Amino acid sequence: MPTITTPNTGIDIFYEDHGDPEAPAMLLVMGLGAQLTLWPDELVEALVGAGFRVIRYDNRDIGLSQKMEGARAPRLAWQLLRKRLGFPAKVPYTLKDMADDGIGLLDALGIGKAHVVGASMGGMIAQLMAVHYPERLISLTSIMSTTGNPRLPQAEKHAMAALTAPLESLEEEAVVAHGLNIARNIGSPGFPFDEAAQREKVLRSVRRSVYPAGLPRQLAAIIDDGNRTSRLARVRTPTLVLHGEADPLVKVEAGMDTARAIPGARLVTIPGWGHDLPLPLAPRIAEEIAAHAHGAAAG
């Protein structure tokens, strides 16, 4: 699959394009420090089977897309303090820049309008696409994401600690162990944790790309963007909010808040679902996304 340079931001984006090129386009936007491979193949195939051209891509600073080499993110504690005091912190790039990347990918592929689906940080990016490029979105699906409202319940400590823990080394086994620890701590308690299958999944991801320097820069962009509640009130794109009731990283209240913030949004919560995309849930998630997208196009 190819890398393409976005005409608006000049960033090299690696993407995969699945399904009939004449079918309605659906853009999948992944989350913090996560490669496009975190979208399960089974979910992509189900969406293609539902009649969509499905495009998934690596955000800047992760996977096989362009890395912001040499850019320095502010120290997390310093950035949080400045944010609380109302002062800006200099960040290498913003979530809006990352939203521009996604729109730029559509431009480069000659796609005028698309259904946009974002997970976690990808949901935040997708929200900003709906805020700034409403004419480009047919529908929006925000999965396990948030408005950034600081009054919402915070992540469970074990989940955030696993996600932000530094790598002990870049040796393959250490990186795989790190990925497995994240999966255990943010995964879905309502669905069995298949150690062997998860190890194989993490190993494939590690052998594709390892780039820990990108995560703090992406995290800085999230913190910099702050509370999107007032901006989301302007969204008129038909919106579906999907969230797990057992999410330890982005609590279900964040999904509820997202649905309240976006006029007319529909909220679907699922018991036992954490902060991942477990294979047993792939058919249900695909069904919800496809029904919403078809409905938005018809409406």
Strand order of the largest sheet: 1-2-4-3-5-6-7-8
Tell me, what is the CATH class?
Alpha Beta
Looking at CATH, which topology would you report?
A: Rossmann fold
Give the class from helix and strand content and strand pairing.
alpha/beta
The helicity comes to 40-55%
Overall pLDDT metric: 94
Poorly predicted regions are: none
Molecular shape: globular
Sheet of most strands = 8 strands, mixed
First-last Cα distance: 34 Å
Global Rg = 18 Å
How would you characterize the overall build of this protein?
It is globular and about 50 Å long. It is built from 11 helices and 8 strands. The two termini are 34 Å apart. The protein has an 8-stranded mixed sheet with strand order 1-2-4-3-5-6-7-8, sandwiched between helices. The model has no long low-confidence stretch (mean pLDDT 94). By secondary structure, it is α/β, with parallel strands linked by helices. The protein has helices at 41-49, 76-85, 95-108, 121-132, 157-164, 172-186, 195-208, 214-225, 229-232, 252-261, 282-298, and strands at 3-5, 12-18, 25-29, 53-57, 114-119, 137-143, 239-244, 266-270. It has one domain: Rossmann fold, CATH 3.40.50.1820. Strand 1 (3-5) and strand 2 (12-18) form a beta hairpin.
For the structure shown, list the relevant keywords.
globular, 8 strands, Rossmann fold, 299 residues, alpha/beta
List the helices and strands and how they pair.
Blueprint (H helix, E strand, L loop, with lengths): L2 E3 L6 E7 L6 E5 L11 H9 L3 E5 L18 H10 L9 H14 L5 E6 L1 H12 L4 E7 L13 H8 L7 H15 L8 H14 L5 H12 L3 H4 L6 E6 L7 H10 L4 E5 L11 H17 L1
Parallel strand pairs: 3-4, 3-5, 5-6, 6-7, 7-8
Antiparallel strand pairs: 1-2, 2-4
Helix pairs in contact: 1-11, 2-8, 3-4, 5-6, 6-7
